[in-house]
Amino acid sequence: QQTKKSTLPLPPGPKGYPIVGNLFQMPTITPWKTFKEWSKLHGDVMFLDLPNQPTVVLDSVEAAFELLGKRSDIYSDRPVSIMQQLAFWDWSPGFLRYSQHWRNHRRELHQFFNQHEVAKYQPIQLRECRAFLRRALHSPNILDQHVRHIFTAIIMKITYDMDITEMDSEHVLLAQEANLALSIVTMPGVYWVDHFPFLKYLPKWLPGLQFKKIAEYYRPIVEKMRSQPFDEILQAMREGRASSSLTSKLIERLQQRSGTTNLSTIDDELARNVTGVAYSAAADTTTSAAQSFLIAMSLYPDIQRKAQEELDRVIGPSRLPEFSDYDDLVYIQAIALEALRWMVVLPLSAFHSVTRDDTYRGFLIPKGTTVIANAWAMLHDPKEYPEPTRFEPERYLKDGKLNRAVRNPNTIAFGFGRRICPGRHLGSASLFMTIASILHTFDIHEILDEDGKPFDPFSSVVTGLISTPDRVPCKLIPRSDDRKQLIDTSV
Ligand code: HEM
Fold first, then answer.
1. Would the pTM count as exceeding 0.90?
2. Which atom of ligand 1 is nearest to the CA of 351?
3. Closest to 433 in 3D by CA, of 157, 131, 135, 160
4. Considering the chain, what is the average pLDDT of its residues?
5. Per-domain boundaries in the chain
């Protein structure tokens, strides 16, 4: 028996082929740009016929806010990915199905990363930003690694009370490799097993089944990343020598709640999942945003000058920025917003999925449809952000204040509805302090390539769940000898 709703048409989309639908047309490089082009023909709510994974792409804020925001009671599920399961990434709270199990994880994440709690991490953020300044001053040739170091050290300290002094420490290398696996297995349209699940039962020596080898290689690495630091803290707690960290606090809280020191299987899993997701969600994302900032500054020296005028006026020459300067550093706030808009960290956000048949603008969106929000298209919409490829902090300002009439890019860049990024306060604060600290002490210069050509940030991005510039051709030069001294004498 047909319901009335199911007689409605699906949203329009590119014409596909029998059986494989649009699978062969799926772009593997910067798909957000291709989707944007396709949406010019088919509209901002576009259907892609992918086997086992019908997909709708939303290219406008209007559609994303309505479906993922207002209707988030039914649009907060995640699509199931066999590739993620095979590579052992399906435990992550970021990929859990919309359920009580997910809500339990979300509640703990909120406890540790809500706006009020995040203020407690400011001393860690300040210390790591200042350690960065010293590293950039004394070993300027590995700038990219130093940038990554800031956000790795912040999240490792918060989560495990671990001091990351070297980026080649075992824990960091493990976490980086597990994250590489994440970006490899989340490439949309790449793994046929997600569209033809029977492939997972075929032997791995058959041609075309490399996905099995990839998953088998990464699985133990991801397992170890999630368990090793956690087990170390659990052991230290048993021996009464654990220091305070998110992990120890969470374990204690779960122990208190259940009234026993032995965690139940469910609580043990919850704790491992919440602590395990922290690095993977925090490090590469904030690093990518900071890279975007550095590249923008190297291409727009006039914006640097304006920011430095503000920093000199508010802070003066004899100290480094503090979080208490936040309200007075409006131009720096605008730069942080623009960095998240200009080169979008998660250009296709994270995929949602709908748990019931729904109708929108007269179209059917069937239960189980994967819903992709093209955040890149929304943040590069010239109607909202004129000349979107220009880096222009002024677009958010009016009379020396943030202009509320312009859409704050954070309302898109951190995702939507009930799945919105729980780490957004931490990410934004780390980014703000990094930008203020660097601009207060250094000038950022562009490094031209061998042919003397300037860097084109938009044709040099790595495609993945998280998009990053493929290099950061910038160098930092101290603004003066006094600022050099300031860097060396500040802790
Ligand atoms: C500039 C930095 C960051 C950006 C741009 C960013 C962006 C995002 C986006 C777009 C999503 C998907 C939201 C959705 O599905 O609608 C997300 C999810 C998530 N983020 Fe972030 N994020 C950042 C930093 C962080 C940090 C610092 C943490 C950790 C403390 C974090 C933890 C998470 C988690 C756990 C999820 C999954 C939420 C869920 O599925 O319920 N993020 N983030």
1. yes
2. 15
3. 131
4. 94
5. 5-489
